[in-house]
Amino acid sequence: MGSGAKRRLTAQIKDSLRELSTQLSLLNQQVGARVELRPVDFECLDLINRYGPLSPTALARRAGLHPATLTGILDRLQRGGWITRERDPDASDRRAITLRARRDRNAEIYRLYGPMNASLDEICDTYTEAELQVLADFLSRTHTAAHTATTPQDPSPPDPAAPRESDTPD
């Protein structure tokens, strides 16, 4: 394959990933609306389901949210019966809590994703095991790249007194 063809395919893959991101976002919004959850609440619930039990601090870090923002989200999720907040008996701080998803509510969400999951099963059935391994590797590496891109590399704020690149002579 020539370099021009490879560049075109790479561009097509990037465009497809952008479109997929948009479509999955729309699907998540539709599912969230059906179960009466705001998009950010739905994302936090998904994180608790996948990585929980979690502390609020760990959830805030995973979601990229300020801990103070999380309070309202957790209040809504608890009022809706989606999560529980439990005191952590092993923590040295008596205020420490653990967030747990209420698994009995998951069936409602899984049912709403059923058509998409069935479509994915049909698509995967058209590939060989070797092709699925390549796809799984690609998606895993793409996830890692996205995670790296969204993880702050230097959490300290820039020094306002430090010279900027544009201020340094060539």
Strand order of the largest sheet: 1-2
N-to-C order of helices and strands? HHHHEEHH
Rg is 21 Å
Tally the helices: what do you get? 6
Share of helix, binned: 55-70%
List the uncertain runs. 164-170
Number of strands: 2
> Structural class, please?
mainly alpha
Q: How large a portion of the residues is in β-strands, by DSSP E? A: 5-15%
What is the overall shape?
globular
Distance between the termini: 41 Å
The average pLDDT value, as a whole number, equals 87
What this model shows, in words?
By secondary structure, the protein is mainly α. 64% of the residues lie in helices and 6% in strands. It contains six helices and two strands; from the N terminus they run ααααββαα. It has a two-stranded antiparallel ribbon with strand order 1-2. Helix 2 (39-51) packs across helix 4 (67-79).
